[in-house]
C-alpha cells in the first residue's frame, strides 16, 4: 500500500532515476511528444513543468539551472528560444497525458505525453468551437451601418410599390398587322352594307302596302 509515498521510485536507484528523467525531459523538449508508461509520464511531469516555468525568465542563471538538470545544450536552446515564447501566456499545465492502452509484452499502461501548445490539431478544434459559439445579445450598429440599412429598405419598398402599380395597370393589347387590316376592311365596307339594308327595308314596306 502506498501510504504517504509522494515519490514513485520506479524500481530504480536515485542516480538511475534522475538520469532517466533528465534524458526523457530532453527528448520531450526536442520532439514535443514521447510514448512511455503512465508511471514514468507522471514522474516526468514533475520534472519538466518546473523547467518550462524557469525558461520564461531568460537569464544566465536560469539557463545554468536548467542545464544542470537536462545536461543537453540543444534542449536548453530549444526550450528558451521556441517553447518559452509559445508558452508565455500559459500559467502552468504545459503537458498533456493521453492514454494509449496496454503494452503487449508486460501489459503495462502506456500513454503519450506531449506539450499542450504544440498539438496543432487540438488547437484548431478549440478555435473552431470558439468561432461557432455566438451570443444572443445583439451588437450595437454604428451610424454608417444604420444609414446603409435604411437606404436598402427604402429602395426595396420603392421597388415593391412599383411592381404593385405595374400589376394594377390594364394591359394594353398590341394589335397585330392582320387585326389592323381586318378593321380597315370593315370600315371600308360599312357604308355599302348600310345602303343595301336600307333598300331591303323599303322593299318590305312597299310589299306590305
* Alpha carbon gap, first and last residue: 148 Å
Helix run count: 7
Q: Unreliable runs, pLDDT <50, ≥5 residues?
A: none
What is the residue-mean pLDDT, rounded to a whole number? 82
Strand tally is 3
CATH superfamily of the largest domain: Ribosomal protein L17
Count of the domains: 2
Summarize the structure.
63% of the residues lie in helices and 10% in strands.
Characterise this structure.
- Helices cover 63% and strands 10% of the residues.
- By secondary structure, the protein is mostly helical.
- The chain folds into 2 domains: 14-120, 50s Ribosomal Protein L17, Chain: A (Alpha-Beta Complex), CATH 3.90.1030.10; 150-202, no CATH class.
- A hairpin with a 6-residue loop joins strand 2 and strand 3.
- The longest helix is centred in the C-terminal third of the chain and has 32 residues, at 177-208.
- The mean pLDDT is 82.
Notable characteristics:
single chain; 50s Ribosomal Protein L17, Chain: A; 2 domains; 7 helices; 10% strand
Question: What is the secondary structure topology, with strand pairs?
Answer:
Blueprint: H1 14-31, E1 33-37, H2 38-55, H3 60-70, H4 73-86, E2 95-102, E3 109-115, H5 120-132, H6 143-168, H7 177-208
Amino acid at each position: 500500500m502506498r501510504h504517504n509515498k509522494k515519490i514513485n521510485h520506479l524500481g530504480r536507484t536515485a542516480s538511475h532515476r534522475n538520469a532517466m528523467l533528465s534524458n526523457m525531459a530532453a527528448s520531450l523538449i526536442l520532439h514535443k511528444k514521447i510514448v512511455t508508461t503512465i508511471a514514468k509520464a507522471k514522474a516526468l511531469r514533475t520534472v519538466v513543468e518546473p523547467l518550462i516555468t524557469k525558461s520564461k525568465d531568460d537569464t544566465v542563471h536560469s539557463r545554468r539551472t536548467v542545464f544542470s538538470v537536462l545536461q543537453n545544450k540543444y534542449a536548453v536552446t530549444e526550450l528558451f528560444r521556441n517553447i518559452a515564447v509559445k508558452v508565455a501566456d500559459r500559467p502552468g499545465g504545459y503537458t498533456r497525458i493521453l492514454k494509449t492502452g496496454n503494452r503487449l509484452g508486460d501489459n503495462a499502461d502506456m500513454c503519450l505525453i506531449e506539450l499542450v501548445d504544440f498539438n496543432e490539431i487540438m488547437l484548431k478544434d478549440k478555435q473552431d468551437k470558439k468561432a461557432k459559439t455566438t451570443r444572443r445579445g445583439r451588437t450595437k450598429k454604428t451610424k454608417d451601418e444604420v444609414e446603409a440599412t435604411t437606404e436598402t429598405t427604402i429602395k426595396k419598398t420603392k421597388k415593391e410599390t412599383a411592381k404593385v402599380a405595374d400589376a394594377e395597370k390594364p394591359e394594353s393589347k398590341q394589335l397585330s398587322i392582320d387585326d389592323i387590316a381586318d378593321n380597315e376592311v370593315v370600315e371600308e365596307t360599312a357604308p355599302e352594307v348600310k345602303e343595301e339594308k336600307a333598300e331591303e327595308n323599303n322593299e318590305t314596306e312597299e310589299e306590305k302596302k
